Amino acid sequence: MLLKLDFSSDKPIYMQIRDQIVLGIAQRQLAAGERLPTIRALAEECGINMMTVSKAYQLLRQEGYIATDRRSGAVVSPRQGAGPSKETLEGLRLRLGELRLAGLSKEEALDLCGRLFEEGTE
Amino acid sequence: MNALIMWGLTLWVPILMCVLNINEAKFKKNIAVGVTFPRAGREDPDVLGLLRGFKREQIGLCLAVVALGALCLWLTWPELNFLTYFLWIDLVIVVQFVSYARWNGKLKRLKKAKGWTVPAVRAASVTVPAVPAKRVSLWWFIAAAVVGVVPAVFDRGLWYAYLLDAVLAFACFFGSRYLYRNRAETVDENDAVTQALTRVRRRAWDRVWLLCAWMMAVVSLCIFLSTRLSAVGGGAFMALTVVLALGVCAVAIILEFRVRHVQEKLTAASGEGFYVDEDDRWIWGQLYYDPNDSRVIVNNRTGVNSTVNLARPGGKVFMAFALALLFVAMPVMGVCFDSMGTGPEPLVVADGNLTAASWGKDYVLPLEDIESAELIDALPKNMVRTWGTGMDSLLKGRFSTEWGDATLCLDPRSGPWLKVTMADGSLYLLGGGETSNIVDIIQEIEK
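Output (structure tokens, whole complex):
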């Protein structure tokens, strides 16, 4: 799996890392139990500060996407059936509002959501 | 003779640089002459035309600088030999750098015109760095250091030389670990290719450093043998060192080409869909500048080598040091070496001391400590330099001779010379000035 970091984006780098790892898990590029790089190794790989990676990992751990262990480092632990968090629902509401404003009908928006939901699961 | 060896050892460098640059015109990791192209670009006639032009220019420049080097060897004045030599090396570097930058600029402009420029994102593999890297064990370097220092047990006189070799052998471990950027060789989204490329490069890097460590250990053994087997001849140590250095260079070059070949083969199918394009971070295709990259040491885009990030203060300091070394220190060194080449100054007796001087170093011997002094017409055979200068016109420093260890400061081409034995048994062979001057000095000492 590849991270694609955009340094000219307004989105902070740690959020870009968090979002792409979440997407990677959802699209099954990262399997449950798969080991993630250590904070130092990922910082070296991306050429960024270790604190930035640490912040992204902390967020992922709080949200339950990864588990950290002293021996094996960080491993993927996708939440099974835990239901969407409050933040996810807020985000979804906002995105659906944006789709409506972009001129999509309910059917078109649901069709789009369905296709995006299936991405990486086939 | 020295000049011949010196030029002979380096005249092949522009040829090697030419071959490496010509190899740069082959697509590796989607890159040719420092410019990333999509798959379509590899078959584009305009791109291929420019790459052919680049190769032709490289061959032409190589022939020109080698011819100039050969000309310098035969035409230069002996007193300017080193200066000419170092200026020629600077010229070789500048010429190939400028040529590469010129063709890199042409290819970048063509890429832009063809609409192949992609948005700048930094691609970082998550899968590859998750697997712990297998590196050469520290114990191999420790073993080399131990082998390097063992001769000091049997030859206490040169302990510092053996210790230096051992320290350098051990330092190679730090080179292998800290002069390498632990970053995956990401070309596109194919994890298997990234993994293979990373492994091949890392292994080649570690091998080169391990080889250097063992070369230092063998150099130490060679010094020891040359002091013990003076019958082998004065040039034996030098010849062995040259053979070793050439051997290490040969292995490093072979590894470089092997890695490049693997990079070329494994990425032959890349360049469709997403592919890594970092052209905007490489000035003239050769100098890395990325303020968003916190690392100083970065890997070259192709091959095995490392370079520095010029956006970091450490990178700037390193580059300034390298440039100062190449374009200031080397010419200054040339002037100094050429001054040395004029031979020792005439021997002088003054203020109760006998002084033998040459550029940068004086040997001052108190007359009261001199036990005997005699005029010699022939130098001992099979002198082996253990420390100091060995030029056609100047032998200076410590030498192992058939008369025992001696300190020399003389021009071996013009005798007679002065053999001085001190009260503590140490031996000096000195020269410089007219024969009458040396005879006067002997009389003075005898008084």
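The radius of gyration of chain B is 27 Å.
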